[in-house]
Every structure is written in C-alpha cells, then in structure tokens.
Amino acid sequence: MQFAEVYADEDVVLQTARSLAHELGLDSVTPAAGSVLRLLAAAGSAKAVVEIGTGAGVSGVWLLRGMRADGVLTTIDVENEHQRIARRIFAEAGFAASRTRIITGRALDVLPRLADGAYDLVFVDADATEFGACAEAALRLLRPGGVLLVNGAMAGGRISDPAARDVDTLTVRETVRAVRESEEWIPAIVPSGAGLLAAVKR
C-alpha cells in the first residue's frame, strides 16, 4: 500500500493544494487514489466529469489531468471559500477557467439540475450520509459505460467490522451493497487511499 502512495508522484501544485486542504481541516484523496482517478478519466477519454466535494482542488487536478484536453470538470461544494482556493489551484496547474464549472451549493440540490446521461465519470467525495443519494443521482447522470467513483469505501477501516454501527459506516456499507447487488452497475472496490468504490454503468 505504501509503495502505491509513493509511486503516485505529486508535483508542487498538488503538494500546495494538499497543504492548503490540511490547513482547512479537509481530507483529500491520497496520491494513490488520485492516480486511480486520473487513470479512469484517461481510460474513458472523459470529456464531462462531475465531482461532488471540491475541497482545495486536489482530486480536481488529478481528474483534469486524466480528462481530454477539451473536457470540463463540473465541481460542487457547499463551501465557497474552499472553491476560491481550488480555482487558484486549477489555474496554477495550467487549466483554463473554461475547463471547470464551479457550483456552490449542496450536492443533493445541484445534481437534479444536471443533464441525464451527459457525463462520463462521477466522483463522490462527500459526507458518507449522502453516498447512497449521490450514487442514485450518478446512475441518472452517467452515460452507459460511464464510471462512478466513491471515496471512503473502507469507512475508515470499519467496513468489515460487524461491531461498527455508527451512521457513516452503516451508510457506506449500505451503498457498497446496493451497488454490488444492482443489475445496473459493474462494481469493484479499489483499496487505494480511503478505498474507492468503482462501478461502471451498464
């Protein structure tokens, strides 16, 4: 696991974004998880991506670096201040302002306004309590063959502990199970960082 983190090298822009996130008290995707985001965005030649949870822009930079050169990242966060920092990070990473659509608001209020079947990838890095609703929304937003990625699928290491009955762990468990049992997804758990639930829409 440690080698995977070291293998995913981060440049000064990502290091800066990560330290700003840390100052804000935000958990960012680890370098290994970020490299998986970039890989899957590149594998799918992603042109339209939705990110739920902008943070300080760490995951956004990883995604943008995997997307097509004409791709647009729609990123949603309730914190305008975080997005102001992310906007600066995206610019420092060399992305034109036209490559990002930054929307301030609660994901569950914003997602219904986005177009059906118009997206190649949806990345969820939100409150665990919203995972299920975000996964349902992703099913509508993604084109067939589109990818859902949910960060935090290991529930902080508690996912397989039957004694862990806190709300976050129960919600993560329920989301992971629902996606696995659905006829509409082809899922896998990627054990990078906090764990990624990955699923392709049939």
TrEMBL record:
Q: Which SUPFAM superfamilies match?
A: S-adenosyl-L-methionine-dependent methyltransferases
Which Gene3D superfamilies is this protein grouped with? Answer: Vaccinia Virus protein VP39
The keyword Transferase is assigned to this record: yes
Q: Where, if anywhere, are coiled coils annotated? A: none
Q: Which domain of life is it from?
A: Bacteria
Keywords carried by this UniProt record? Methyltransferase, S-adenosyl-L-methionine, Transferase
Tell me which InterPro entries the record gives: Cation-dep_OMT, SAM-dependent_MTases_sf, SAM_O-MeTrfase
Q: Which PROSITE patterns match?
A: SAM_OMT_I
Please name the PANTHER family in this protein's record: O-METHYLTRANSFERASE RV1220C-RELATED, O-METHYLTRANSFERASE-RELATED
The protein, known as: O-methyltransferase
Native organism taxonomy: Bacteria, Bacillati, Actinomycetota, Actinomycetes, Micromonosporales
